[in-house]
Fold this sequence. Notes:
The structure holds 3 protein chains of 3 kinds. By secondary structure, chain A is mainly α.
Amino acid sequence: MIRLLLAVLLGVLALPTLAQDTMPPAPYAYNQLEDPRLEAEASALMHTLRCLKCQSQSIADSDAPMAGDMRHQVRSRILAGESPAEIRGWLIARYGDYVSYEPEVSKSTWPLFAVPVLVILVVAGVLLRRLGKRRNEGDGAGETA
Amino acid sequence: MGKRLWLWAPLALFAFFAGLAGYMLTQDKDEFVESEMIGQPLPDFALPAAFDGLPGASKADFAGSPKLLNIWASWCLPCIAEAPQLEALKAQGVEIIGIAIRDRPADVANFLGRYGNPYSRIGSDRISEVQLAIGSSGVPETFVIDAKGVIRYQHIGDIRESDVPKLLAELEKAQ
Amino acid sequence: MTAEIGLAALWLAAALAVLQMVSGAFALKAAPGEVNALAMHARPAAVVQAFLAVLAFAMLLYAFATTDLSLKLVASNSHSMKPLIYKLTGTWGNHEGSMLLWVGVLALSGGLLAGFEKRLPERTMGATLAVQGFVALGFYAFLLLASNPFERLPVPAPEGSGLNPLLQDIGLAIHPPTLYAGYVGLSVAFSLAMGALLTREVNPAFARVLRPWVLGAWVLLTLGITAGSYWAYYELGWGGWWFWDPVENASLMPWLAATALMHSVSVLAARDALRTWTIMLGVLAFSMSMLGTFLVRSGVLTSVHAFAVDPERGAFILGLLGLYIGGAFTIFALRAGAVAEGKRFAAVSREGALVFNNVMLSAILAIVLLGTLYPLLTEAFDVRVSVGPPYFNPASAIFAIPMLLVMAVGPLLRWRSDKPARLQFELALIAALVIGVIALVSFFGQFPLLPLLGLGLAAALAVAALLPLRGRSLKRVPVATWGMVIAHFGIAVALFGMACEGAFSKERLAAVVPGGTEQIGDFAVTLEGVTPVAGPNWTAIEARLAVRQNGGAPVILTPQARNFWSPPQSTSESALLTKWNGQLYAVIGQQAEDGRWQIRVWWKPFVTFIWYGGILVALGGLLSIAGRVSVDVRRRKATAQGDQRRADLDALGAAAPVPAE
C-alpha cells in the first residue's frame, strides 16, 4: 500500500517534467526525402507498418516518438538503397508479423488468403444455384404462366 | 436435407466466434510485442556516452561474461520504479549496460543522481536505432546477453522484486 | 434527486419490458383471427417504457449539464471548466452514458413501433413486441447490474477528471448518436424478422412494414459512418479518412448487412421472393450491430478509437450476444425450412441483379469480418498479426468491383425476366465510360490500380445512376425512384472522392523558419508566425499560415497543437482550406532545436466528395422512406374511404346497389 502511494506520489511529482521526452525528432521523422520517387516508396511502405506504441495506427499516421524513429529508419534505409521489401523483412525479423499491416502468406496467416478463395467458391456456388438453375426453370415457368 | 444443413451454418459460425471471443475475454490482454531476436547475436552498434560520468556502449562491451542490457530513459516513469531492482541486481554482481533512449546528458545525470546508478556503461540512443535493431518496443526493457553476444532473454516492462530471481536464473543459464 | 428519478425510471422500464415480453408472447397463443386478452398490454408497455427510458437519459443529460459531481460517472468523465456543449455531448462520451443512450433509442423505437404500426397481424405484432421486449430487457439488465450510470459517490468529488480531448469536438455530438440510432433501428428489423419467422408470416405485407425501419436505420448508419470518417479525418491530424481499424469495421459491417437487407426487402415487397434470405439478413444485420458494440466495449481488439473498454462488461455483452443471436440463429435453423419458397425469377432480371448485389455485399462483409477477427484468432495461439489496408483494400475490391458493375445495370432491368439485348446501348455506354476514363487517366501518369479502377467505375456509375430517369417525365417519377437514383449517384460521388484522394494526393512535410515558404501543388504556404493561445481547458501554440494559390490573395490558416490539462494530453487541431475541388490540410508540429517548426500540409483533391457522397446516399434513403410512406398513407386513406362508403351503403339498407370494387 505504501509502495503504491509512493508510486502515485512520485508519478504526480514527476509528471510535468518527465511524462514525455523532450528530444527533437530524428532527422527523417518529419522530413521528406529529396527524391520524390524514393519518398513515394518510403511513404507507401510507412503506411503499411504498424506503430508499436500506438493503438492500431500505421507509423505514417502517428505522432508517437517511436513512430518518428521508425519513419527515420525507413527513409534513411530507402535513401541508402534498400528496397521496401528488405526493410519490411528487417522489421519482421525483429517484431514478427505484428509490425506489418500487409500479411504475407505464412503458417500463421494462410487462412486470411484461403478464406477469400473459399468465399469466391461459395459465392459462385450460390449464384449458380440461385440464378443458373432458375434460368431453365424460369423459362419453363414463364411459358406456362 | 442439404438445404436444412445449410440453415445451421450461421449458427455454427456464430458459435465458433462466441467461443473464441469468450476464451479471449478470459485471457489477459497481452499488450507486449516480444522481440524475435531471442537466440540471435546482438547487431553491431557503437553508441556514444549518454553523459560525462560513464563511457558509451558498443557490442564489444558484452564480450566476456553474461550481462544485462537495460533499455531505459530518464523521462520514463516505470524506470524510476525499477531502479531499486537494478541496484539489487548490481549488488549481486551483475553487470548492467544501459542504453538511454531519446535522452539528454543533463537529464541522465539528474536521474542517476536521484535514483542511483547501477550501470557500468550507458550508450545514448537518440533516435532509437539500437532499440529498433534488437526488437525492443518500449521502455523499460531488459535483455540477457550471453558471453558470445547472443540475446538470450527479454524482460518487458519494469523489473519488479519478483522478477529478480528469474533474471538471475537466466544469467546463470547464459553462462 | 435527478439521478434517483433516472434510476427509478430505468427499473420501471425494465419491469415494463418484462410485461411487454410476456404479454406479447401470449399473442402467439391466440387462435388465428382472435386476440388473446393478455396480449393487449404489450403495446402500452412499449410506449410507456419509451417515455421512461428517454426520461432516464434526460436526467443523465441534466446531471452532465450541471456537472453534478456527486455522480461517479460525471466526476470521472466531466469537468466544470468544459464548454457546455462538450458537457452535454460528454454524456455519451463514456461507457455507461453511451449504453443509456443506446437503451433510450431502443426503447424509443420500440415505442414508435408499438404506437404507430397497425398493419401487421396481431399475432406477428405480439411476437415482434415480445422479441423487442426481450432484447430491451437484456440491455436494462446490463445497465442496472453492470454499468449503472446513476451511481453516487459517498463524498462528492471536488472536481471532475475531464473528458478525453479527442472527444471534445462537435463530432461527438453527431457521430455516436446517429450511429447508435442506426444500430438500434436494426433491432426493430431484427424483432420484426423474428416475429414474422415465429408466425410464418414472411410475405410482401411484412416486407412493407419492415422496409421503413431498415431504410431508417440504414440512413442513420450511413450518416453516422460519414460523420465518423470526417471526424477522424480532421481530428487525428494525419489526413487519413479510413484506417480499416476494428472499430471502424464494427460500424461498416452492420451497414453492409443493412444495405443487403434493404435491397432484399425491396424484392420481397415487390415480388414476394427471397423470403428466407431476408429473414437471415435481418438477423445478421442486428448481429453485426451487437458484435460492433461488443468489439468496441470489450477491448478484445486494439483500436485507435476505443475510448471506454472493460473486459467484464465485454463478457456481459457477449452473453447477451449469445442469447439473442445464438437464439435467433437456432430459431432460424429450425423454422426457416418451413417458410415457403418465394416466387421465382430469371437470372437476367431486377431480382437477379439484386441477388448478385446481395451476395457480393455478404462476401465483402465476410472479408471485413475475417480481417477484423483474425488477429483475435491468432492471439488465442499467442501469435500476433496485423491486418490492415493492404489486405482489406484488394480483398474487398475483388467483390466490390463486380458489384458496382452490376449496380450500374441492375436498376435498368425489368422485374422477373429481361433480355440483355434490350439494354445494348446502356451496356455499351457503361463499358465505354469505364474503359475510356481509365485509358484517359493512365495517359497522364502512373497511378495505383485500385484508384484507377475506382475513377473508371465512378464515372460509369454516375452516368448509369441517372439512366433510369431517361425517357421519363421527371415530374412523374415516383419519389422512391428519385431516392434510388440519388443514393446510387451518391455512391459514385463517394467513390470518385476516394479514388482521387488515393491517386492524386500531395504531401509536404517540412521544417520551416518563421517567414519561410513551402510549395505544395498550386499552393504556396508561408509560415507567418507562431503564437501561444489559450482556451477554456487547454493551452496551445497556433501557427499562422498564409496560403496563396497560384500567387493569388492569401488565405490565413491557423492549425494548433493543443495541450489539455485535464486529463493531460495533447492533440493536433488541423486547419482546413476547402475548395470546390479539394481540401488543403495543414498541421503544426513541434519546434526543432534550431528554431524551425515542423509543418505538415496535404493537398487532397476532391476528398470532400467522399462525405458529400455519403450525404447524398443518406438523402436518397430519406427520399425513399418519404416516397414509400406517402404511398402507404395514400393507400390507407383510400382503403378507409372505401370502407366508409361501404359502411354508409350498408346503413342505407339492402336496397342499395353493391358497388363494384
